[in-house]
Amino acid sequence: MGNFAYLVEDNNKAVAATITPSTEDTLYLRANLVTLPVAKTFRTTSKTGQDILFDLGSALAIDLVAIVNHNMSTSATITVKAGTTSATTDFSQAMTARLTDAFVLLSSTQTYRYWKIEVADASISDAFIEIGYVLIGD
User: What pTM value is reported for the model?
Assistant: First the structure.
């Protein structure tokens, strides 16, 4: 976590966002994506073809997206997308999963209202994707 320790919760744009996941386990709710501690997790109901849309309310400058405390393997496919509409077709960058976190420092600051994290990991034994915390900031 030292790579993004400078981004404190007060600066995490995801905290105030409207969050819409493609699927959601009713016992592991979307609010957990932006609630500390990171041990209280969010879960999808599938491990493939999942996405989480963050509506920041207005276009905000972002240069870092991170996922903390997840169950994905290093083979997971994670893509960060952004756009002026919820289709998020204006920007896309891959994110690399590590053992318990994943993050990407964007190649340049991007300013969009809508941000989406797309995830798929067919190689994990769990039937779901689990995420403890999401950071979106500058």
Answer: 0.93
